[in-house]
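Schema walk-through. Below, the input block comes first and the output block second. Nothing else is stored per chain. Lengths vary across the set, and this one has 333 residues.
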Amino acid sequence: MSKQPTIVVTGTAGFIGSVMVQLLNEKGLTDLLLVDDFGVEGKRKNWELKNYTKVIERQAFLDKLMNNEYEIDIIIHLGARTDTTEFNYAIHEELNLEYSKSLWHYATAKQIPLIYASSAATYGSGEHGYEDSHAILDQLQPLNPYGVSKNEFDKWAIAQTDHPPLWTGLKFFNVYGPNEAHKGRMASVIFHAFNQIKLDGVVKLFKSHRADFKDGEQLRDFIYVKDLVAVIDWMMHAMLSKEWVASKNGLYNLGTGKARSFYDLAANTFIAQGLKPNIEFIDMPLDIRDKYQYFTEANMSKLRAAGYDKPFSTLEEGVQDYVANYLVLGKGY
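--- output ---
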């Protein structure tokens, strides 16, 4: 039996990172180096139930990395500060820009593949569309410091003449699913809707503050986290098997390609429990009102052209699985 690849996964105490590790384990991969700020208050230690080689704090990992203490085959960089209501850019700059640069430089020096998380927040209000073209990066106007930091790294990466042999930056759209509870206010509408239903039988959604959108009809491209990590797994294996070629390197949207309304999202959270939808509308908080995306929809043609041909879960399928198999059972917290 050939040796397993040694895989670094950052952000593994968080939402997507912990689900990524679970998928790798399900596929028999356990030579994993799990990296995060595990001591940060409020983060669930999802990694405790996983099979792995080593768990290490982010700064200690960086120190050991720079001292060439590891032999690594690929880096999956999912660690980031994702709070869109955190307006101190210095925090985003440290975690989303400088940290990512360190991993890029290491992957370049060691000539190993790198897959990193970007974000649909880079697209701002969508005035330039949602096409994962490198040509529009300088024109994009993100609505918050988080989106700015992600776009700045994307621009930096594209501008580099020295880079990992194989690399991709994945623009995650609205991700939902198990292991997101620690995100608090930033957890998905499904998570909050489920808990509102449990508490008082009603879901409260934000009113629209734009004349061209009705209340609850704000549209997002919602992707189930299981589908998202399946794409990363496919891409990782393509890189490790040398099926991925350098001409495919670059930025890729990662959504479903189909925008759905927040009303649909909330209604399906009721339906997944056999309940009749009961939805009310409240004013959107002032601190996010002028920084709110009313429409996102990923153009998925680039990923499809790169070879990914599996279907994505419909909103109904994803919500049903998340609610029935995790939230109702008290799992995935």
